[in-house]
Amino acid sequence: MDLRFGLLLSASIHLLVIIGVFLYFRNTENALEIANLRLNRGGIPSLYFSFPPESGKGSTPSEKKSQTGSETDEIERLKNEIHFPPEALEQRLESDCSWLIEIGKNGEPKTITTVKSCKYAVFENHFRKSVSRWKFQLKEGTRITVPVSFRIESND
Asked: 38 with 76, same domain?
């Protein structure tokens, strides 16, 4: 690779990062305080990021109670947390299953009922273990159906 091309590529990537940061924080009044680019003659450019002290702390418990998401959003969040069981992957097992979950107090699952059975018990056990630790952001008494397709994608 040519030296000029490498420098141009590097400068382009850095410029895209800087533009991305400013676009991301464009609605923030302190956008200039968030990203600070320092250029010194003969030195290496330095880019510093600073975030407001309250960022990254998450919601307070009272805010979380008022944040009840939609059922579809909650199902997608849950499905993204369910991983393929390693023992099923080793044996290349696949199955389509679904469950009906009733939400109890504090977002905990109250009941888990199988709607469509899995071909293999390993998927059922894995799902029930994952859901039992899950905290839903839905109202108590809400019932949702969670379909899960345990599939191995391969390029064979």
From this structure: no
